[in-house]
Structures are given as structure tokens and as C-alpha cells.
Amino acid sequence: MGATEPAGPGDPRDAGVVTLPRLAVVMGRAADASRVCRVDAPDRVLRIWAMLASADDELHRASLRPEAVARLQRQLDVLTAELERSLSPALAGELHHLVGRKAAELTAAELRVEYACLLAWTIGLVIGILTELQVASAKTARASRPQPATRR
């Protein structure tokens, strides 16, 4: 095997690599299986949320130059696409409904509204993710506790 070939399973170069399990979070319990709200990459959603919050802060500065508005609009498009890739089709559809992208360039005021809407929706998503993880953690903790012996 040459130095440019990827390391295979059991290869000593692969010994320090840790592969984390993928985590998907199901939000609520839909009766219709096609409408399951699932977050396939909660870590990505948390990262996007932090980036949206940072950009939202920048948007609320006193004045924005046209170059900054254009850059923030491109960033909004990229973040929306990244968020969409992290969601089930049901949640992605909701995202499209919320942030139906327009072809025209947005003004600074319109961009502020777009960011605020996406940020608020993402905060709700993050709260849902954290709630589901806390519920799952509590269930796991209860299941792993030793059961008291029953007396007869």
C-alpha cells in the first residue's frame, strides 16, 4: 500500500481515528410516517444556529454597506441549504415555506427580516432537539437504574 492510498480497516495509520456514531433526533410523533420530523445532523443545526445569531448581530448594526448586504444574503442562502440537508423532508418543506427564496436581491431591511425568521425557527428546532435528547437521556437513566428487590 502506498503513502497516498487511504488507510483501510486494521491499518495502523487508522488506529487514532475515532468515528462518532450518527445521531438523528425525531421531533414529536407524527401519525403519518411520511410526515416524520427528524433532524439528521443536530450538530450541524447547532452550528448553523450559532452562525445565524452572529450574522443577525451584524445585521442590526446601525448601517450596512451594500457589499455587506450582498455577502450576508449569500451567507443566508448557504446556511439555508445546509440546514435543509440536515432535516427530514417534512421539516425541509416547512423551511422552504418559511424562507421561500426570491430571485431579486434583498434590501438590508428585508434581509434582517429573513434572518430573524430563520433564526427564530432554528431556535425552535434547537429547543426541540435538546428536549428530545433530555427525554431520551432520562429514559436511559431510568432503564439503567437497578430495580429494588420485591419482598414476598
Q: How does this model look, in words?
A:
With 152 residues, this protein is mainly alpha-helical. Helices cover 56% and strands 4% of the residues. A two-stranded antiparallel sheet has the order 1-2. The chain is elongated. Residues 1-9 have low confidence and may be disordered.
How would a crystallographer describe the biggest sheet? 2 strands, antiparallel
* Strand residue percentage: under 5%
Broad structural category: mainly alpha
Mean of all residue-level pLDDT scores: 77
Give the overall shape, derived from the CA principal axes.
Answer: elongated
Strand order of the largest sheet: 1-2
Helix content: 55-70%
Please identify the oligomeric state. Answer: single chain
Give the beta-strand count: 2
Summary, kept brief:
The protein is mostly helical and 152 residues long. It contains four helices and two strands; from the N terminus they run ββαααα. Residues 1-9 have low confidence and may be disordered.
